[in-house]
Amino acid sequence: MRNIIIVSLLLGLFSFSVQAQETESKDQLEKDYAALKANSEVVGYAPEQLKLTDAAYEEMQKYHYKSRGAYRTFLRYQTQMRIAQTYAAGAAAKAKAATAELETRYDFMISERAKAMADAQRMLAEQQASAAAAAQQVAEGQAKEASMAAREAALSAREAQLSAQEAQVKMLAMSQELADLKAKQTDRGMVVTLGSALFQTDSATLKAGAERNLGELAKYMTDFPQAKATIEGHTDNTGDPAYNQQLSAKRAQAVANYLTGHGVDASRVSAEGLGQDYPIAPNDTEAGRQQNRRVEVILTQ
Fold first, then answer.
1. Is the pTM higher than 0.90?
2. C-alpha angle with apex 17: 11 to 19, nearest 5 degrees?
3. Which partner for 281 in 138, 264, 268, 291 could form a disulfide, CB atoms 3.0-4.6 Å apart?
4. Is 164 within the bounds of a domain?
C-alpha cells in the first residue's frame, strides 16, 4: 500500500512537471506568434504562409487541453515550424522583392543610359548637320564670291579692251585730224612740229600765215577736250645761247597765247623755251639750222 502511494505521488509529480513544461513551451509559442504577427515585413511579404501559421496556431489553441500529450506536442511543433517557415518565406520574399527592385533600378539605369546616349548621338548628329550646312553655306558663298570675282575680272578685262579700243579710235581720229600738220606718234604723245613759217627771223611775233596751222591745232584742242598741249620752243645755235633760250620761250608762249585766245583753257596748255640745246639736224648748213628753228607741240590725253 505504501509503495502504491509513493508511485502515485511520483506519477503525479511527473505529470505536473510535464504539464509545466508544456505550458512554458506553449507560452513561448504564443509570444513567438505574437511577435510574428507584429512583424509588418513578414505580414506583408508572406501572407499565404502566414495563413498556414494562423491555422496551425488556432489548431494548437483548440486542441491543447483536449488532446493527449503526444498530439499536443505535435501541435506545438507544427506551430513552431509554421512560424519558422513564415519567417523564412518573408525573408525570401523580401530578398526577391529587393532583387526585383535592384533589377528594376538596373533596367532603369540602362534605359536612362541608352536614352542619354541616344540624346547625345542626336545632338551630335544635329551639330554635324549644322556644321555641314554652315560649311555648305561658306562653300556656296565662296563660290559666289569666286563667280563674282571672275565676272568682275572679265568685266575689267572688257573695260580695258574697250578703253584700249577707244584710245586707238581716238588716236586714229587725232592722227586724221592732224594729218595736215604731219603729226607723228611718239612715246611722249602726238608731236606736231611747226617750223619757221610761224615767225620771222629773230622775232617772237606770229606771222599772218600762221593762222592756218594754229587754227587746225586750236580746232583739234576743241574737238578733244581731254587733250593737253605742251609747247616747246627751239632755236639754232646762231647767236648768244641765253638770247636763243629767251627767244624760244617767247615763241612757245606766243603759240600758247594763240590757243588760249581761241577757246582752249589755260590749264590744258603749258609752254617752255629750250633754246639751242635739242637740235634735230646739224647746224652747219642753212637747211639744218632752219629745221632746228621750230616749235614742237606735244599732245597728250
1. no
2. 100
3. 291
4. no
Question: Distance between CA atoms of 32 and 20, rounded to whole angstroms?
Answer: 18
Strands 189-194 and 184-186, by their bridges, are antiparallel
What is the predicted pLDDT for the residue at 130?
86
Is the pLDDT assigned to residue 8 strictly greater than 80?
no
* Confidence (pLDDT) at 1: 53
Residue found under cell 560649311: 135
pLDDT tens digits, one per residue of 106-136: 989 898 988 888 988 888 898 998 888 888 9
Burial of 90 (0-12, 13-18, 19+ CB in 10 A): buried
- The whole-angstrom separation of Cα 86 and Cα 54 is 10
CATH classification of the domain holding 230: 3.30.1330.60
The answer to whether residues 71 and 182 belong to one domain is: no
